[in-house]
Amino acid sequence: MFFKRVVLLVTLLIFSFTAFSEDSKQDGFKIGGAMRYNILATNYENGWSKLNPQATWDTWRLNVDGSMSGVDLSFEYRFYPTSDTHFIHHGYLGYAFSDKVYMKVGVSQVPFGLPGFASHSWWFQIPYYLGLEDDYDMGVKFDIEATDKLNLTLAYFRQPEPAGPGFDALAGRYSYDIVPGQGAFVDSNGDIVMTDATNQELNQINARLVWHFDENWHVGLSAQAGGIYNTSLDETDLSTAIAAHLEGNFGRFNLKTEVIRYDYSAKSNNGDMLDVVQMGGYGYHYGGGDGYTGGVASKANVYVAGLAYTFPVNWGPITSIQTYLDYSMVDKDVEIFHDTHFLIPGMLITAGPLYTYLDYALGKNQPWLTDSFGKGLGSGVGNQEWNSRFNINLGYYF
Q: Whole-model pTM above 0.85?
């Protein structure tokens, strides 16, 4: 009932901005896509891998974009051979009610945090691995230009995007979502107890307000509230997240900053409130064991900062080189948990349709930078050394 009332209020607000007008878009569709490879070398807990360096096929994708009779279509499907999975990235119908209101119905980007991306690198920042950067869900979204400098986005998502094949039936997806699996809680003796939790996301609302106070700078606030439904208990708990974010350009520099507070309130199948929830993506859910839990700390603060500098060049097909330094961390609420740190110095080389990321990613309790995939965002490991991976991502986009 609560979510139905919110959706009704949002609909009334949106139509207060709406003035229907004729659409002048030309009918037609374009087919595109991309193919990307990784060349990598890792140095994790077990030291330098004998497989270094190695090449993997990162992804290939197909895109369809266009418009017919004023109704837009945008669709992207991705294949990840290394992860043995494939899934929809986005797929929505769009319609402009006026110059100030645009609607998307289907799978679209969740309006939370910095518009677009909170990162400069191929890796994204830590919020991505928490489902709080470049997340995609199934629902309806409205982009509203309230004034020349004020943009409002409102959305209702019934559920996560459709899943493809994967190790977990619900984890074959591009963005990270809460999935069934093992969670954990800290008992009265201070011990971490693993437990089953058949949870999934359901009925989420989002609002993001962005103020462009200068042609080069904008500041914003985001809010998210949704249900985490336990199918065994037939109960739903309220999950929330808020963020304040700032992005700006000065000269050839670009700055991105963000602070996030999230609370993934969820229960185990026994009714215990979880300190660690299970999340998944790319066909896998986060792992656990070896004395500490995989998954994601259910409550934490997240801090994000990234600085980039762009060099315009004219070296044959190369037109620009962007250097950057991205950093993010997760400060977990539970005292015995260990924080996550993620640091990525790197550069992006642009040459026509070819985009090449050269990253030296460093992480402490980063779930992908480890010999034991998926561990680190939960309880984590104390006295963790910096793990590293040098990665070249070569992508051709058409």
A: yes
